[in-house]
Amino acid sequence: MIFAAFVVHGSGQSPSGDVTDAQLAVASAGKTVRLGPAGGGRAATIPIEVYVARVLAGEAEPRAAQGAHEALAVAIRTYALFNAGRHERDGFDLCDSTHCQVPRAATPATRRATLATAGRILTYQNRPAELFYSASCGGVSESASQVWPGADYPYLQVAKDDVHDEDVPWTLTMTREQIERVLARAGFEGRLRDIRIDQRNASGRVALLELDGLVPDVIRGDQFRMAVGPTTVRSTVFEIDRDGDQVRLTGRGYGHGVGMCVIGAGRRAARGESVEEILAQYYPGLDLTPLSRAMTRTAPPAPRPAPTATATRPARGVVVARVPSSSPTDAGELERMVSGAHDDLARVLGVSVAPIAVTLYGTLEDFRAVTGQPWWVSSVADGTSIDLAPLALLEQRDGLALTVRAAVAELLVAQALRDRPRWVRVGAARYFARISAASNGAAPPAGDAPRCPADAELTLAVSAVAQREAETRAQACFASRFARTGDWRSVR
Ligand SMILES: [Zn+2]
Ligand SMILES: [Zn+2]
After folding, report:
1. I need a labelling partner for 284 at 20 to 30 A (CA). Which of 254, 386, 449, 470 fits?
2. Residues lying with their CB under 5 A of ligand 1, a single-atom ion
3. Under 8 Å between Cβ of 366 and 302
């Protein structure tokens, strides 16, 4: 691991000796970031090191020692490179909200730390590493796979961080009714009688909470934190005490705790640890590499121009597919498959969607980075776009053809069923994907209806098994109601 300060001589030096944006632009060596506003609007293209200095101002502890700033600058730059394809569909690389990284006005300290580490990133197997960082681990870092199922990296594991002994615990008091309201918004049904910690994981964080009286009656710790609000429940390192209607949480740390701990990095730099030591603590085993020497990730090729309508391709069925270069299925083949499914299902359902953009991902990391879904999800259909998990995974599950049919069906029913519970859309998509075009969408024979899944059973499932079970029940539930009404649009 070589760590050489990158010194830029010549133009752009300010009279005070402070690092300027012009110097950071030179140090970027032509590498830029297209930064888009999370709320919509025009994206700006800025040199990568100018971007890093701004994000550092947004994410770092303002008064931390230079070494902590430098370590975080490396993490921010690495994150930017790994996630550059995340907002491709929006026409830019990264957004300016907590979904990606939050930029603020750069300061002399953040520009200095950025220039000192310019062009250096952390690599894993010679590519920019997928990594994370958060404000404070509270004493033990978390493994990535606990927060993002499927993100299982040797360098993002549980590790003790021995700089938190002086931390003051945070507390939060809520009423049972407040928690019940918050969870109802997240798709849970019923009256909350009690809330208990059911499981802790290896880092001591709350892995599962039992929700006595609700459906589903269990929620993952990190999803509970997100449902209540990540700045309200500051971390999942907490205890619960209940006193009548009052539920009191006492916890440590702030954030998911995966990867670099910003507070901890500051304390390490203050006690004299080097940038390399800090990075080795939070990302053990990664290489600090010049950006120019790291391979960029295998992003799918740029979309081809939309094909013009021809006799063999109905105008309403314009489909643009992207596949990884290593894929045995080519883009044309996938486009024909999606077009075929669309035309088939459009006849049955009486609605159509165009154009459709479909992306088949080469790796689960890319699929997860773009969709934010856990490993057990095969496809995401939203608006006019479909994201597909890697082919090898689809083949172990329902197969490419059936996955495509279900995703296309989901796009087609989405508008008409937009104000229904989630099981109606999921159930309809699965149901219509599995019937043959010859049946013409006739309702099935009436059968027994299972209990229809609550929204949270489909959106916040705690495991692959729970997810499949809820989807199967959604399909049976849809089939049963459809049999009664004979009109898919009126199922509710
Ligand atoms: Zn974003
Ligand atoms: Zn820490």
Report:
1. 254
2. 95, 99-100
3. no
